[in-house]
Amino acid sequence: MTSDARPAPVKDSAPVGFQEHDHQTCVETALASVEARCSTEGLRLTPVRRKVLEMLLQEHRALGAYAILDRLRAEGFGSQPPVAYRALDFLVQNGFVHKIERLNAFVACSHPGQSHSPAFMICRKCDAVAEAQSAPAKGVLGAAARAAGFEIERTVVEAEGLCPDCTEKA
Amino acid sequence: MTSDARPAPVKDSAPVGFQEHDHQTCVETALASVEARCSTEGLRLTPVRRKVLEMLLQEHRALGAYAILDRLRAEGFGSQPPVAYRALDFLVQNGFVHKIERLNAFVACSHPGQSHSPAFMICRKCDAVAEAQSAPAKGVLGAAARAAGFEIERTVVEAEGLCPDCTEKA
DNA sequence: CAATACATGATATGAAATAACATGACAAGT
DNA sequence: ACTTGTCATGTTATTTCATATCATGTATTG
Lengths: 170, 170
Ligand SMILES: [Zn+2]
Ligand SMILES: [Zn+2]
Ligand SMILES: [Zn+2]
Ligand SMILES: [Zn+2]
Known about the structure:
The structure is a homodimer.
Chain A: H1 23-41, H2 47-59, H3 65-74, H4 81-93, E1 97-100, E2 105-108, E3 118-123, E4 129-133, H5 140-148, E5 151-162, H6 164-169
Parallel strand pairs in A: 3-5
Antiparallel strand pairs in A: 1-2, 3-4
The structure holds a DNA duplex.
């Protein structure tokens, strides 16, 4: 294992998710990227974990743990909550999937293999979710944290609003 | 009702929460400020609502709905979940209380009467919560949103880490 | 082939949130 | 005074999200 296989710094910050795109390629690329990181880092992308990741990549939007569980059941995997939550834990721990706190739901990472602190745009109408980059620690919040002596380890940034499609329709 | 009684713009952005302070005064001031806004805006700060607000101001940290409910029960109010959730809805709607999505819990606003988009610092060790200001729509995220055609209506910004006290102890 | 670590399966329970319906308080409008 | 409408509260039941725990299986690895 090449232990220096740290995620590369962010290069593009395009908020994949609302635009039209070649989704099949998008899924395959992401999956390949995750497989690559797993093999270089000795992580075990087991069948359940892989299936959950594939589902989330396919959907390209946030799914609740029980929605995932339903699909797992349909595919013959275990059907009890821990099955889904354990797979999700693994995927979240390793940055392949993010949890959307606002929705208590999960979405596949759009920039796997890159070290990033994600920010999300969540459409309140159609539930579409796009991932962008954030740098909250560099702005007002970072200053407040330093002033208060608070050590930021992780940030949740979620914007709620209307996606382009839903804005148009209204 | 003086309908021009919009919240004043933010003046101070001190992240109240971690520092020592005269807490009794802090509670009284906040409560007075909320009462003022309720009377000018014709909002009804009923006993349950007021009690919940007082509890959250007293505690000065995030409480779950069921913790609140326990306290309500102890004070002789209704003891079923909707009692707490309804009071919380009212308080959140009107900006007197904020929900911490990360914790599924609620905290009294530190800057009531000011229009603000709050950001929170949450200590993962002691659960202390401090409220600061954020301007997420002005930074990287705002740019991404504009680029994507996404209309931000509201943002959740929550930083997780170690508060000064817990950093010291470690 | 142990011994170990890790992953999965299944049962049970806990915690957060809401749906639906009934009752009560109060302020118009008649 | 009485009806009507609105808003708040109370209660029951249910749904949704999440975890603790124990048993079983399946890889490595010494
Ligand atoms: Zn895609
Ligand atoms: Zn990501
Ligand atoms: Zn205080
Ligand atoms: Zn606030």
